[in-house]
Amino acid sequence: MADFLTSTHRAKWIFTPQQLVEKYRDASQRAIQTLEKCGATLMEVDSDGTMSYPEPQNSVKDNAEKHSRSKPLSIEEEQSIKVFYENKLQEVCKNFHFPHKIQATALIYFKRFYLHWSVMEHQPKHIMLTCIYAACKIEENHVSAEELGKGISQDHQMILNNEMIVYQSLEFDLIVYAPYRSLEGFMDDMEDFCNASEDQLQMLKRLQDTARLEIDKMMLTDAPLLFPPAQLALAALRSSVALHQVIDFDSYLSSLFSRQNSTHTMSELIEALNTIDSLVMKYKFPSDKELKHINRKLKSCWGQSSHDEGKKREKKSKHKSKKSSSEAHNAPPPA
Amino acid sequence: MSIAAPGQLNVNESPSWGSRSVDCFEKLEQIGEGTYGQVYMAKEIKTGEIVALKKIRMDNEREGFPITAIREIKILKKLHHENVIKLKEIVTSPGPEKDEQGRPDGNKYKGGIYMVFEYMDHDLTGLADRPGMRFTVPQIKCYMRQLLTGLHYCHVNQVLHRDIKGSNLLIDNEGNLKLADFGLARSFSNDHNANLTNRVITLWYRPPELLLGTTKYGPAVDMWSVGCIFAELLHGKPIFPGKDEPEQLNKIFELCGAPDEVNWPGVSKTPWYNQFKPTRPMKRRLREVFRHFDRHALELLERMLTLDPAQRITAKDALDAEYFWTDPLPCDPKSLPKYESSHEFQTKKKRQQQRQNEEMAKRQKMQHPQQHTRLPPIQQPGQHAQMRSGPNQNLHGSQPQVAAGPSHHYGKPRGPSGGPGRYPPSGNPGGGYNHPNRGGQGGGGYGSGPYPPQGRGAPYGSSGMPGGGPRGGGGSGYGVGAPTYPQQGGPYGGSGTGRGSNMMGGNRNQQYGWQQ
């Protein structure tokens, strides 16, 4: 963990709940202002990281009626959209059989990106794919943009167009620490702690498996932005122990404390673990109906009328894997 | 609340997040050029601090942001050590860039990304190649120890550098040495189970296991390069200047003996062993060839240039070697002489211009024979043949030529009156990044990327010029006139021509990008 101690992850990307609220609010307010001013919120980005807001409408009067219909998303609605795409992200990673580490890195990138931006400004589908692409690059598990795009029938140029803005939004802090690795460390430690016999090793293996699933859930909440990976891993381990009822977790914790010079007190740590648990408990996946409603609002914010959508769909069905015309339009010439 | 996108923000103010604009810096001059991008010396406007800006080219990248840049950023953000170059920040250029004449940059993309590094005055090769330069034993020990300390730190943090060579070792005027150019570096796991590309490390510094096609390797590859540099410092010129892979291996075998299952268990299983194994028996001649070296130096070198990577000395053990703990001890970096501060850009530029003109006149008279033997030929056919003839190189290249001119005191130990003009010790104040002897290397160290070999070392760029060349005896050999090192600085005097070619060539991103 010495690595983590000197990392940008620890120094810059662990926040207080209050800070998160402020960041979400700032991004949302900026998008709302753009909506008022320009009638749409979606930004155009280029592969070199340049971007621009939609042009303010000149013929405001003509469009006034139409624009007045575009209502911004509430912060809660934004959250729902992000939850939806974070799930999608995990799904895509699973379908590609990427290692856990990639999925976790991509998820953390996605979360960090939307600390700065509203989903009204950058399409989460694009950002999600770009985050996966970037995570593959950073974790030295290369998948070409084309391959990734093909796997989900999307134009890969969109990934390349968004790559730079993603790195910039991440402030080029590309190394992130996922709790899975910490969990492995704790498991090794636990083996020593309980002087594991063959039977117990089997038991520990099961413990680790459920703890992993627990981490998967945590990764979909704000917890990775609020707590260091080791605490997330420990919380997952605690839940897992509670499920299997095999180890006295409290005495393990005390033994941890007795061996390490912790900057926290035991009660502080337990409080943190409790908060993490409650974040997982509170996690809620939006219903189809909610999503449909939010999506409609979102598309209107992006300036995509239902008419445009229809046209797009028509095109797509004609030549499935080809670039959709609107995307091809924004793309730089092929290098 | 402003709703300007970061790209539209007032460029001189740093946004609350994201990257600052490159406009926070005033570009002073270009100090390197390569495929990776240009390197500039620049001044931060707010603080006046001098930095090096390395531009990351974004065009011709089918896979977006270059993986080499990603690796370098990722790794340098993780490494914090006094012997590793510090990446200060990353800045972006928001708008269309113009070159000095105000024309739009050839780069069709509107913006750009720059890595901001601490500025270093020299690189090891540049420094060593300065006319009249002769390192002392404590100085060599001091540099070697810093190199090993920095490398040990990398290896402990599971980073392989994979391009250790003199031009990637930057030196400041406090005598500090820092590893730079992590564009080929990558993390490794201790079990060496991952397959890594064997097309790394500049040919002359590439270890035998890579030349034999191994794809599972570890920190020992860097240690071979260190051995090459160590020997080069003592010997006065590169010890394995191969022109292609077969010749490189042959040169290694000639000095270190042929590998066999006795001295290198498993060597016959390396992919290209049968193809490259020597046809005649070859004995290890290292001790014989370098018998004039100090005993402890030779001992250490033996262990660095060990064929079998498993038996090769580690950075940690090398630091414990007798060599560093016997008299004369390594000196304190701060005690090292300060070579020309390179911060007077404007005056220098003018002076260079002036000298360049003088040079032109001289050249026309002299018809100097072209030095070529040390120039490694093109290896990668795909490289674009860009000649180093742009105005920027000339600016840099001109200085040493003049200072090393006829009035130079060849072989005279470094001293206050070594050369004409304002730079007494030598004639290569520009040293540092764009040393002409490394020709195409361009902005060494910051990794502006290698130049194709034919561009390297403008024929007159050697520091020996015009007194240099075959007759001149050159002013720049490490050992010239030095009683300690009987081996002279090579037949061409200037020890520098075409040193350290990075055979990666111009297309390294594309070629090596996704091999790991």
From TrEMBL, chain A:
- The Basic residues compositionally biased stretches are 313-323
Instruction: List the Gene3D superfamilies hit by this protein, alphabetically.
Output: Cyclin-like
Checking SUPFAM superfamilies in the record gives:
Cyclin-like
GO terms assigned for molecular function: cyclin-dependent protein serine/threonine kinase regulator activity
Keywords attached to this Swiss-Prot or TrEMBL record, sorted alphabetically, are:
Cell cycle, Cell division, Cyclin
Entry's InterPro entries?
Answer: Cyclin-like_dom (IPR013763), Cyclin-like_sf (IPR036915), Cyclin/Ssn8 (IPR043198), Cyclin_C_2 (IPR031658), Cyclin_N (IPR006671)
Task: Please state every residue range assigned to the domain named Cyclin-like.
Answer: 87-168
For the region Disordered, what residue ranges are annotated?
49-72, 302-335
Q: Which GO terms describe its cellular component?
A: nucleus
Give an example GO biological process: cell division
The record ties this protein, via CDD domains, to: CYCLIN_AcCycH_rpt1, CYCLIN_AcCycH_rpt2
The family assignment reads: Belongs to the cyclin family.
Subunit text: Interacts with the CDC2 protein kinase to form a serine/threonine kinase holoenzyme complex also known as maturation promoting factor (MPF). The cyclin subunit imparts substrate specificity to the complex.
Protein name stated in the entry: Cyclin-H1-1
Please name the source species. Arachis hypogaea
From TrEMBL, chain B:
Which residue stretches does the UniProt record annotate as biased composition, category Polar residues?
389-401
One of the entry's Gene Ontology molecular-function terms is: ATP binding
Biased composition, class Basic and acidic residues, residue ranges: 335-347
Identify one Pfam family in the record: Pkinase
What does the entry give for GO biological process?
Answer: positive regulation of transcription elongation by RNA polymerase II; response to virus
Q: Which SUPFAM superfamilies match?
A: Protein kinase-like (PK-like)
Q: Where is the composition biased (Low complexity)?
A: 454-463
Task: List the catalysed reactions.
Answer: L-threonyl-[protein] + ATP = O-phospho-L-threonyl-[protein] + ADP + H(+); [DNA-directed RNA polymerase] + ATP = phospho-[DNA-directed RNA polymerase] + ADP + H(+); L-seryl-[protein] + ATP = O-phospho-L-seryl-[protein] + ADP + H(+)
In which domain of life is the source organism classified? Eukaryota
Q: What InterPro entries does the record tag this protein with?
A: CDK, Kinase-like_dom_sf, Prot_kinase_dom, Protein_kinase_ATP_BS, Ser/Thr_kinase_AS
Q: Name one GO cellular component term.
A: nucleus
- UniProt entry tagged with the keyword Nucleotide-binding: yes
Tell me the CDD domains matching this sequence.
Answer: STKc_CDK9_like
Keywords recorded for this protein, A-Z: ATP-binding, Kinase, Nucleotide-binding, Phosphoprotein, Serine/threonine-protein kinase, Transferase
Subunit structure comment from the entry? Interacts with CYCT1-3.
Q: Which protein are we looking at? A: Protein kinase domain-containing protein
